């Protein structure tokens, strides 16, 4: 919300319903009654909405809101009473009706899902409000049995702002008079738009000549801090942020000054900038928006004045534009209080099939011709222009190759004529190209000659002929004569001229001139995929039009985004791979931000030691300094502070030897040492004694040379003695410094030694968990791996399949499983349906030996590695959202598909405990219920997927005629029928939400305590109204109909009957009738967008207890690792041992705690 005037709640007013018909425009209309003015939500005038003359992806509907407005949501609807509706569309915004900008959710997803019928309304709330005047909707897909049909509404609120235009000569100067007192936080913020890629937005300086400058350079924003008038490099501090800021769209900039740092924000990206101490005091006395007004000659600094528009210009809370409007004496200048901007119509060549055809010169006798254009691209190669020379039997190609411009003319029987000019033309900047042929002289120039000019004198006349092709050629088989031996162009073009006449691209868009395919006209859709860079750990980013590449060389990391460390996390891990003692690079946090460090690994003992040296591990004699009664030593370690803390934290045991040799001494206790994380804390105990004891090891063991003292060196004896021992308390390590007192005592001699830090026992490797029961699991907080994350662990098992890890969101999920005895599967969904990565081993993995799994998911790809086998990868969806959104509680589950003849019953024998019975049935009521069973309290949960209604999902009963039944009725609604007392009538809870038999996965939780029942199911809250009466006679009929679908994660209190049926189908207490097939309820190729969602149902008589769903996509915040064994996808291995469970997101450790309090990293 740039205006700061409206909250999200209040900014939700309908904006379209009251507009006049003249506010609507469209590409075409089927008839007068199908015009764009009829496209208002829930209206039935005309033909009930807009429909274009033809249904294709070049149609559009546009709405003029009358002024700049804040948009927060968009709703769509089909054409009333028809079979015409959109199923997907693009949303475009513009301030001027030109230069459209596509709105992308999460900066990646371009397409918005549309409608499934003509009358229902589908609304999308924008993640961030958009300020615009014009809204354009472009259909992508529509009902295949109809045509494009649309009614729409946009929601938002008015937007008011203060705007000025700067034309490169106008100016604005703000003088801070008097200078305000020093503030704890100072700030500058503004919004700008421009077509120029260079220019100084703002310059602020004070009496000390310290200055701050915000400058555009090649479309990037530079922040320059300058100390005085000096031009030395030490007097400058420069940072850069943003890209493509010359796109004539509004961009937000903010600078916040704190005592030691700056926060620089450009749009959605913020950079934390550490500043030198000389810049900590901000004493600006004037802020100017024209450098000459600040007394800075432009030519001396090679800077340009800004040319564009500024909005909401605020300095320390003062609106400078508002002051200028009020003619406040602190603000002077000559600016226009509006935004005057030229109209440049661009076009985007989106792919290999894109091309533009234009008619060429009609006067064949012409002896001169010229073609001009501007382009911007990330690709090094691509065809810009081609045309034939019919009279000469030649063809002309103007193209990019290796980021240089090339002209080639090929004539039969002659050697090709070739020219080249320019370099690095794939930098994303606008570059101009001009081809001129005049009187036998041919000239090609780049950037008006600044990028070089090439000349030639061909022996034949070069004219443009009857047709020109830009960007590429039509598909093979077309009647047009066009050949492209080069790659097609992907990028933007604008300002096309033919024989010095501008080409009207709006006429081209309206099919009034030329022809085109796969073009986006009146917009430039270039995206900078390297700003901000997704390359981690210092990897360098390069890009093409459609993707980016990270160069990870010399970083110590690998993968598509340089996320995964190529080094092990500990010496223990190197030993596990079979290495011997020696120096190894240790990356203590794996993919985190701590750099790898060269550390010595001692593997000569049973324990594997990490040895970190410091600057003095030798025995050092204390030599008193004149006038000082203390000796101080400070220790610098070879590892950085973060590395030290991580090594100590993840090690099972750390120690450091501390030795003090003495003669004629009052010993170590008049002394102290400093140890622990950060700056450390003063410690007054010695090696071998506990913290805070003020003792040495001999005092603890009661064997000091003088029983009156707690340290040997306190005895003041003439013989040499020593107090030595190991410091083993990790919270006090490492030793930072040592202070020895009483060193000037006559005859006193002493020496000390502080050994290296030694640690063993990597808790990340041997934090093993043993899963020996069907219900075993580990419960962790949600795995937050939005942009990049990796998971690694060791396992060994004797079972042939099972899930290792699973975490779900509303639609997203991530899962790692042993799909067979020789295959590991990594699957995930980031919004475009499930994707899988598989690695197949050459030998069985259930051999009870340790195997390592490493999985990574980032914005570019997913990868899976098993042991030392080659890494398998799966490219990420091109238009899926890049943030993995996981927020639900997950558990290890069993799933099975049922047919109409399938039934599962589970009999509970009750020798002592008052356990409860639960039976999952689909074709018959379960029999065999033990006597003396009463239903007093239940927690029932399951997930189901079916297209059948009515259907009985679950029935639990007792010999006392008490029961609980869960079913779908004939209206596709959920019902819970229960009798809590055999002497009372049946209670019925009936939902008000329909369409539960829609083939999607739904999760249900039923909880009852005493007489309360709470049901959680489906998408959002609704209530039940209880009915009283006899037991529904249709219940037994429903059971006889059978159930066709999938049941998953069935749980009744502590009993898992479906697990028991799949794992132990033969012995009692499980009875299986008919085919029971293992299945994956959570994945359906017919509907990859199936969401697991929940509802809270209430309103029945009596008190209602709130049920806690096991899968809750809204409130829950957890995930699980572990499980039990079976030959099914939704279970993990029995007798499975997992170790080195590592969950990392954003390059950081996830520190998790199991449900029994044991910590796992």
UniProtKB/TrEMBL annotation:
Its annotated compartments are:
Membrane
Q: Do you know which SUPFAM superfamilies this protein is assigned to?
A: Concanavalin A-like lectins/glucanases (SSF49899), EGF/Laminin (SSF57196), Fibrinogen C-terminal domain-like (SSF56496), Galactose-binding domain-like (SSF49785)
Q: What is its main location?
A: membrane
A Pfam family reported for this protein in Swiss-Prot or TrEMBL: F5_F8_type_C
Q: What UniProt keywords are attached to this protein's entry?
A: Disulfide bond, EGF-like domain, Membrane, Repeat, Signal, Transmembrane, Transmembrane helix
**Where in this chain does the record put each EGF-like domain?**
526-563
Chain ranges of the Laminin G domain:
163-339, 345-524, 767-1081
Q: How does it sit in the membrane?
A: Single-pass type I membrane protein
Q: Which residues form the signal peptide?
A: 1-18
Sequence ranges assigned to domain Fibrinogen C-terminal in this UniProt record: 562-614
Q: Which GO terms describe its cellular component?
A: membrane
Q: Which residues form the F5/8 type C domain?
A: 8-157
Family from the record: Belongs to the neurexin family.
State what protein this is by name.
Contactin associated protein like 3
């Amino acid at each position: 919300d740039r205006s700061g005037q409206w909250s999200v709640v209040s900014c939700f007013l309908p904006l379209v319903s009251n507009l006049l018909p003249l506010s609507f425009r469209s590409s075409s209309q089927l008839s007068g009654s199908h015009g764009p003015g009829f496209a208002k939500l829930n209206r039935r005038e005309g033909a009930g909405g807009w429909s274009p003359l033809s249904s294709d992806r070049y149609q559009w509907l546009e709405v003029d809101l009358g002024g700049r407005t804040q948009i927060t949501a968009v709703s769509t609807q089909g054409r009333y009473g028809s079979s015409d509706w959109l199923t997907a569309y693009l949303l475009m915004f513009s301030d001027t009706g030109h230069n459209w900008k596509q709105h992308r959710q999460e900066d990646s997803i371009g397409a918005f899902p549309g409608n499934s019928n003509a009358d229902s309304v589908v609304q999308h709330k924008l993640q961030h409000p958009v300020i615009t005047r014009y809204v354009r909707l472009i259909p992508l897909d529509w009902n295949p049995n109809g045509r494009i049909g649309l009614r729409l509404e946009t929601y938002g609120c008015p937007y008011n702002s203060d705007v000025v235009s700067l034309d490169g000569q106008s100016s604005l100067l703000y003088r801070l008079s008097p200078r305000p007192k020093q503030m704890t936080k100072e700030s500058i913020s503004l919004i700008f738009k421009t077509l120029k890629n260079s220019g100084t937005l703002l310059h602020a300086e004070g009496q000390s000549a310290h200055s701050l400058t915000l400058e555009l350079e090649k479309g990037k924003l530079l922040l320059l801090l300058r100390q005085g008038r000096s031009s030395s490099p030490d007097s400058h501090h420069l940072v850069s942020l943003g890209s493509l800021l010359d796109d004539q769209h509004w961009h937000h900039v903010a600078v916040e000054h704190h005592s030691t740092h700056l926060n620089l924000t450009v749009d959605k990206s913020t950079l934390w900038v550490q500043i030198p101490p000389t810049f900590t005091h901000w004493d600006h006395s004037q802020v100017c928006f024209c450098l000459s007004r600040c007394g800075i000659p432009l030519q001396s600094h090679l800077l340009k004045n800004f040319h564009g528009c500024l909005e909401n210009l605020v300095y320390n809370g003062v609106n400078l534009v508002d002051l200028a409007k009020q003619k406040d004496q602190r603000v002077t200048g000559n600016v226009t209080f509006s935004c005057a901007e030229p109209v440049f119509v661009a076009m985007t060549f989106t792919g290999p099939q894109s091309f533009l055809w234009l008619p060429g010169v009609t006067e064949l006798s012409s002896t001169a011709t010229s073609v001009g254009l501007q382009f911007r691209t990330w690709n090094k190669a691509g065809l810009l222009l081609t045309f034939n020379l019919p009279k000469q039997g030649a063809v002309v190609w103007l193209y990019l190759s290796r980021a240089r411009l090339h002209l080639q003319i090929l004539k039969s029987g002659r050697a090709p004529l070739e020219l080249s000019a320019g370099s690095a033309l794939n930098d994303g900047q606008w570059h101009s190209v001009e081809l001129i042929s005049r009187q036998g002289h041919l000239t090609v120039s780049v950037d008006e000659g600044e990028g070089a000019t090439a000349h030639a004198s061909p022996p034949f006349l070069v004219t443009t002929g009857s047709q020109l092709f830009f960007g590429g050629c039509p598909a093979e088989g077309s009647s047009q004569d066009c050949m492209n031996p080069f790659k097609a162009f992907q990028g933007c073009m604008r300002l096309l001229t033919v024989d010095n006449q501008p080409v009207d691209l709006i006429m081209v868009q309206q099919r009034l001139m030329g022809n085109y395919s796969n073009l986006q006209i009146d917009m430039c859709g270039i995206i900078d995929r390297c700003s901000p860079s997704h390359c981690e750990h210092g990897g360098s980013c390069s890009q093409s039009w459609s993707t980016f590449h990270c160069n990870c060389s010399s970083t110590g990391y690998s993968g598509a985004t340089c996320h995964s460390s190529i080094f092990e996390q500990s010496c223990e891990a190197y030993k596990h791979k079979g290495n011997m003692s020696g120096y190894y690079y240790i990356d203590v946090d794996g993919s985190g931000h701590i750099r790898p460090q060269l550390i010595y690994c001692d593997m000569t003992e049973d324990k594997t030691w990490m040895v970190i040296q410091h600057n003095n591990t030798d025995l050092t004699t204390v030599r008193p300094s004149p006038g000082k009664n203390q000796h101080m030593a400070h220790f610098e370690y070879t590892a950085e502070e973060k590395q030290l803390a991580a090594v100590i934290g993840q090690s099972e045991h750390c120690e450091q030897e501390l030795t003090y040799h003495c003669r004629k001494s009052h010993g170590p206790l008049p002394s102290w040492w400093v140890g622990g994380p950060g700056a450390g804390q003063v410690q007054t105990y010695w090696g071998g004694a506990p913290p805070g004891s003020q003792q040495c090891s001999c005092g603890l063991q009661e064997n000091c040379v003088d029983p009156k003292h707690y340290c040997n060196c306190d005895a003041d004896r003439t013989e040499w003695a020593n107090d030595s021992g190991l410091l083993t308390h990790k919270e006090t390590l490492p030793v930072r410094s040592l202070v020895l007192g009483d060193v000037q005592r006559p005859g006193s001699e002493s020496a000390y030694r502080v050994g290296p830090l030694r640690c063993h026992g990597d808790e990340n490797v041997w934090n093993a968990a043993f899963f020996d029961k069907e219900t075993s699991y580990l419960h962790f907080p949600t795995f937050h791996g939005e942009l990049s994350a990796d998971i690694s662990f060791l396992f060994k098992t004797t079972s042939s399949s099972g899930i290792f890890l699973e975490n779900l969101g509303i639609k997203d999920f991530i899962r790692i499983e042993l799909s067979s005895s020789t295959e590991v599967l990594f699957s995930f969904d980031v919004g475009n349906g499930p994707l899988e990565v598989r690695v197949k081993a050459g030998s069985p993995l259930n051999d009870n030996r340790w195997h390592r799994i490493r999985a990574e998911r980032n914005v570019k790809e997913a990868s899976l590695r098993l042991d030392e086998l080659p890494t398998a990868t799966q490219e990420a969806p091109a238009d899926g959202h890049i943030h993995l959104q996981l927020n639900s509680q997950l558990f290890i589950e069993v799933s099975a598909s049922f047919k109409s003849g399938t039934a599962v019953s589970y009999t509970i024998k009750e020798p002592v405990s008052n356990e409860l019975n639960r039976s999952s049935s689909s074709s018959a009521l379960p029999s065999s219920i033990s006597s003396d069973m009463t239903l007093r309290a239940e927690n029932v949960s399951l997930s189901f997927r079916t297209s059948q209604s009515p259907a009985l999902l679950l029935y639990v009963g007792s010999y006392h005629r008490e029961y609980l039944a869960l079913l779908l009725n004939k209206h596709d609604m959920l019902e819970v029928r229960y009798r809590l007392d055999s002497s009372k009538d049946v209670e019925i809870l009936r939902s008000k939400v329909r369409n539960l038999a829609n083939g999607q996965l739904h999760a249900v939780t039923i909880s009852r305590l005493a007489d309360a029942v709470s049901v959680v199911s489906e998408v959002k809250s609704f209530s039940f109204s209880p009915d009283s009466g006899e037991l529904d006679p249709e219940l037994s009929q429903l059971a006889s109909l059978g159930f066709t679908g999938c049941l998953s994660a069935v749980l009744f209190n502590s009993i898992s009957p479906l697990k028991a049926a799949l794992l132990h189908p033969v012995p009692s207490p499980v009875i299986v009738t008919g085919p029971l097939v293992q299945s994956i309820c959570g994945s359906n190729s017919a509907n990859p967008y199936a969401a697991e969602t929940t509802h809270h149902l209430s309103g029945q008589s009596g008190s209602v207890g709130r049920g806690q769903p096991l899968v809750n996509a809204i409130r829950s915040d957890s995930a699980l690792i572990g499980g039990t064994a079976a030959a099914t996808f939704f279970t993990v291995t029995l007798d499975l041992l997992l170790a080195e469970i590592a969950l990392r997101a954003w390059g950081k450790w996830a520190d998790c705690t199991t449900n029994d309090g044991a910590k796992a990293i």
